[in-house]
Structures are given as C-alpha cells and as structure tokens.
Amino acid sequence: MKNKIIIGAVVLGLALAAGGGLWIWSRGRPNVLRLPGVVEVQEVRLGSKVGGRVEKVLIREGDIITANQPLVEFEAPELKNQRQQAKAKFDSAEAELARAVAGPRKEDKAAAQAAMNSAKARLDRVEAGYRAEEKEQAQGELETARADYGQALQEFARVDKLYAKQAAAGADYDSAIAYRDRAKGRMDNAQAKVTMMKEGSRKEDKAESLAEWKKAQAQFEVLKNGTRQEDIDIARAKVAELKANLEMIDINLKETTIIASPELGKAVVEVIAVRAGDLVPANQPVVRVLRVEDLWVKVFVPETQYGFVTLQKEVNVTIDSHPGKVFKGYVIQRSNIAEFTPRNVQSVDERRHQVFGVKVFVPNAQGVLNAGMAAEVTIPLD
C-alpha cells in the first residue's frame, strides 16, 4: 500500500515538472516569425519571330496594356506579295479539285457520244461496202460506156476506110481516133468502178475506221466514268499543300504585329527597345513588360523554422512606403533546394544559416507593391 502511494506521488511530480517546463518553454518561444523580403514581379519580353523594319510603335513606356492589344507593327511588303501569289494558287487548285470532283459536263459527254456514234456509222459503212443501188448505177454506166465505145469503133472503121481511099480529110481521121480513145477510157473507168464496188472497201480503210471508232468509244467511256479517284486525291492533296503554305504565310504576317498575348493579362510597359524605322532581326525581344497582377514577396526561411511555413498559409506583409498598413497574403511556393549553405552543417546553430526560398502572394496589391520594394513578412507559428 505504501509502495503504491510512493509511485503515485512520483508520477504526479513528474507530470507537474513536465507541465511546468512546457509552460516555461512556451513563454520564451516567439509566436511569430518575421522575415525580411523583396517584392518581385513577373517580367515578360515580347518580340516577333519574323522581325523586319519597324513601321509603328503604338505604346509608350509606363502604359498599362491589356490582352490582345497591338504594341509594335513591322513593314511586310514581301509577305503580303507572297500571300497574294499563294492565294491565287490556292484558288486555282480549289477550282481544279471542284472540276475533278464534278467530272465532265453533260455537253461534253453528249459530244463524245455523238462522235462515237459517227465513227461507228463510218465503220459499218466501210464494212458493208457499196449499196446495191450504187452497184447497179455503176453497172449501168459501164454498159453505156461500152455502147459509146462500140459506136466509136464503128465510126473510126468508117472514117479509116474513107481516109485510106483519100475520101476523108485528115482532121476527120484524127477526130475519129480521139473519139475512140475517149470512149475507151470512159469504158475502162466504168469497168474499174464496177470491179471496186464488187470487191468492197479495202482492208486499210476498214482498219482505219475500226481504230477511229475504238478511239471515239474510249473517249466517251472516259467522260462517262468521270474523273479517276487517283486524280481527285492528287488534286485534294495539292489543295491541302497550298492551304498549308497560305496558313504559314498568314502566321508570319500575324507575327509582323507584336501583340499582348491573352495569357499576359494586365501589364505595365517597362522598356521599349525600338523606334520607327529600326531594323529588328527575328526572335529579338523589343518590348519588356511587367505583369501587374503577378507580384509576390520573396523571403528566405531558415531551415530550423522551415517546418512552420506551409503552402496556402496566411501571412501579413508590410512595406516601408505604407507604414502601419498590413497586407494579407498567403504562401504560394516553397523551394525544395536550400540556399546559402555553409560548407559543413554540423551544429543546430549552423543549420539556421541554411535557408529555403518562399514566395508570398498578396492579392489586390496593384499600385501599392512595386518590384524591388523592401517588405517584411510576418508568419504565425501556431
């Protein structure tokens, strides 16, 4: 029983001692962490990817600019001329594609069909040969020629007898010979025509007519079937190529005007490095702006107190230009890499010289906080 009383007394004593020590420690420990810092701002350098000769500077240093606001314009006569040429080629390629997709016109198909039918008719006529009426007519002409030739022979025989007896003049004799020969020629021609009509068209004529018909038929089939899919694909690819080229020129033309990007938000023009007439190379910054909505205070927290600083932790910020005024802020970034590290970190006292960077954002502080200002951040240690 006495042992239990002694043990209880000892435990109570230890508890009171621990509580007293904790109270004494808390009384000596500060409840806030005060850190000096500097106001920083996000700096953005604006320029053009194509460059050129400066035509207009539309802003002045100190101006507040907003998203999509034009700042500097460059001359671009070459690009504008290139765009006109590219646009003309693109329109022509689009027209070719439309014609390829639409195929031949109805009038073209009708003309090709008519030409095919005409060639087929000529082929049929050549293969069929001469008509019966033409053959009968040629035979009749041959009989007439034979009769004329027979009469011419009789007349020549009569005049020849008279001429031999010197009863006919030489002129009559010569006339009879000529009449006989002419009649013989007409008869021979009529005979050849009858023979030709009986034999029909030559093989060469038939082959030529057949080739002409096949050619006209193929032409009609081409127009009837329309444009080949391969030709349409080629025309479509040509349009795509020229469209991409036109878009590339438009992108370069857009780069001839330096504008404030939508992501920039509201900003203050700090430096303008060019004036009208300056020749600026591509990818060179010409305007430097500061984002007024992207201000923060940079402080450094010792490693021994780094655990008290957490993301989104609310803090108080004061600046010399507004004494007595407290700005509310919160921690937006904690560095993961220590800075100002001594060579050998051994003791606790040395570890406090190793610090970590911390960013504190102060909402709605435009016009009050400016880059480079000294500030003090108070962080509660509760």
Q: Treating each run of at least 4 consecutive H or I residues as one helix, how many helices?
A: 8
Choose one word for the global shape. Answer: rod-shaped
Supply Rg.
56 Å
What's the order of the H and E elements? HEEEEHHHHHHEEEEEEHEE
β-strand number: 12
- How big a fraction of the residues is strand? 15-25%
Share of helix, binned: 40-55%
Largest sheet: 6 strands, antiparallel, barrel
What structural class do the secondary elements suggest? alpha+beta
Average pLDDT confidence is 82
Show unreliable segments: 1-28, 344-348
Strand order of the largest sheet: 1-8-11-10-9-12
Termini distance?
A: 44 Å
Describe the protein's architecture and organization.
The chain is built from eight helices and twelve strands. The protein has 382 residues and is α+β, with helices and mostly antiparallel strands. The strands form two sheets. Strands 1-8-11-10-9-12 form a six-stranded antiparallel barrel. Strand 9 and strand 10 (327-339) form a beta hairpin. The chain is rod-shaped.
List the helices and strands and how they pair.
Blueprint lengths: L1 H27 L3 E17 L3 E6 L6 E2 L4 E5 L2 H26 L3 H23 L3 H33 L5 H30 L3 H23 L3 H26 L2 E3 L7 E6 L6 E2 L3 E19 L11 E6 L7 E13 L8 H4 L3 E7 L12 E7 L2
Antiparallel strand pairs: 1-8, 1-12, 2-4, 2-7, 3-6, 4-5, 6-8, 8-11, 9-10, 9-12, 10-11
Helix pairs in contact: 2-7, 3-6, 4-5
